[in-house]
Amino acid sequence: MDPEAYEAYLGATYQDFTQYQENKKAQGYLQKAIQKDPNFALAYNLLAWTYIFPGELRWRSPQEVYPLAKQAADKALELDKKNCGAHEALGRINWRYDWNWETAEKEFLHALELCPNSRGAHSDYSFYTASNGRIAEAQAEAAKERELDPIRSEPLQSEAIINYHLRNYKALIEVSRKFTASYPNLWFAHYWLGVGFEGSGQTLEAIPGIKRLSSYRKAIQTLLPPWRTRMQPQAEGRRRRRSSINGCANRKPVLSHLI
User: Fold this and answer.
1) Is 15 left (phi over 0), alpha (psi -120 to 50) or beta?
2) Which of 15, 54, 69, 81 could bridge to 22 as Cys pair (CB 3.0-4.6 Å)?
């Protein structure tokens, strides 16, 4: 392996992909690693994740980044069929973007088969099963995640997501209060608290969570290219029109559209 490629790859692993600037830095490291070693499967796998998070967090259009994520994950598997991270990435893409539940399930299970001690694979499968109403499985996967890595796993986030999908807003509020107390600067801890209040009909109490989410988005917008910030109101308008067309049956709380 090319030493410079591996050094660049290691640089990417130290970045938090859920933070805009660090995600961009990680992409730069990984592109350098791939340039130095075009057969570096692990680099392609991580590159896929640097595209997945901007799509999920709406820094960039899902239609723009998810195909790039799939291309990178496919390349990783072309080079190494046993790359469990790439299978996990394809599970996330099929679940969150393609809405292909059957393929998502297969990819997540394949990732767990290849890497049964992967904290990330158990975490993703926990969220996936929770979203499908398979709460007992979600709880078991979250427990396994905590067992494998009690330091990096976040039980309060798992509990929040599971209670949301149970529509147990009272429990969601209780868990989210603990979450915000433990991580007062973490925007999505406040987000879940807002979802809980909104879902339980306590609209005024939900406002601080909405404001925290709004502040986070404004901070991200200051880092985006000018043309992208101009397009975001148009995209939001299209999303609202689609929401009105789809009707209000079994409607989720407004804040939950990021899930």
Assistant:
1) beta
2) 15
